Amino acid sequence: xxxxxxxxxxxxxxxxxxxxxxxxxxxxxxxxxxxxxxxxxxxxxxxxxxxxxxxxxxxxxxxxxxxxxxxxxxxxxxxxxxxxxxxxxxxxxxxxxxxxxxxxxxxxxxxxxxxxxxxxxxxxxxxxxxxxxxxxxxxxxxxxxxxxxxxxxxxxxxxxxxxxxxxxxxxxxxxxxxxxxxxxxxxxxxxxxxxxxxxxxxxxxxxxxxxxxxxxxxxxxxxxxxxxxxxxxxxxxxxxxxxxxxxxxxxxxxxxxxxxxxxxxxxxxxxxxxxxxxxxxxxxxxxxxxxxxxxxxxxxxxxxxxxxxxxxxxxxxxxxxxxxxxxxxxxxxxxxxxxxxxxxxxxxxxxxxxxxxxxxxxxxxxxxxxxxxxxxxxxxxxxxxxxxxxxxxxxxxxxxxxxxxxxxxxxx
Length: 412
What we know:
Blueprint: H1 2-23, E1 30-31, H2 38-53, H3 69-81, H4 85-110, H5 115-127, H6 129-132, H7 141-154, H8 162-176, H9 185-194, H10 201-213, H11 216-225, H12 234-237, H13 245-267, H14 274-290, H15 302-308, H16 318-337, H17 342-354, H18 368-375, H19 384-408, E2 410-411
Antiparallel strand pairs: 1-2
Helix pairs in contact: 1-5, 2-3, 4-5, 4-7, 5-19, 7-8, 9-10, 9-17, 13-16, 13-18, 13-19, 14-16, 17-18
């Protein structure tokens, strides 16, 4: 029975993908998803320029804020076979489907999840609002996801398996060269190395040195650019102050939203005492009172739209006053009950990474936050039906968002 459910589950992802490909006329039309115009404005010009300069593409400055591996790979495809945009988009669709499979496998490895539940989460991940739409156009996000998930899977046993650790370091290097924000993986890798008592200290030190070496290509690019993004994007992306705490605030709000959806139906307030809940919520409310989080420059996504309010959204800025205390409770639950899982470690690392950014688009936090929340707890022996409630809502978010995008239209 459960094997059949897993099969039908993956069909539940494949069918919407095939339907979207058909509606987009075999991917010859551009899907106007979140930041969909980035394909035309930034990524295609970078790919075309690198293809023209092949085999020595200029990496010192190009029309994208991300590290250049995505553009280099697609430039090689264009140089070899010419620019066939539908086929290039199809390659990104396959990348996204494989990333969804890796996500399901990751949850079995790190969240004690059985194969049936992991399949459900893999499908929901593939349909999530800021992942599904990005599958059908040339954006760098989903290739970065695939490489980051592959790195975590290969690194599962830490330094106990030299070959797997070497593969993990290669995948980590490639993930960093696709999107520099994946430096959040480094603390997770360190934890995976040093948590295994049966491995000798010299072996752990050698594995840590390999991991440190994965940073060298990225640091070389930073030196070439004189910053963490190419020169043309430094004013937009790099925070003007040492830490942009608004990024941490919005990450907490996103955490509160998905905690209510995915964790509370399964765990409730397990592991928390009443004064834990009151104290964490009070911290969130006090932070909002001290530094109110409101839409402004570099803010977009459905949570930001809901906070803006208006005729289409019967909400307003009070939404963040609710979500931020809930996010503090969720984070405290994760730190208190599972402090040494990649969920908790990854959450803190990613919050630090994003605090260096001036742009707070929701796609930078989603589906990262739900992934970290899911990996922050054990899902062994949980009620499938309770889990299904949150999974259904998460999947429907992506479906509704995609339908809204398709109604809005596409571009030839």
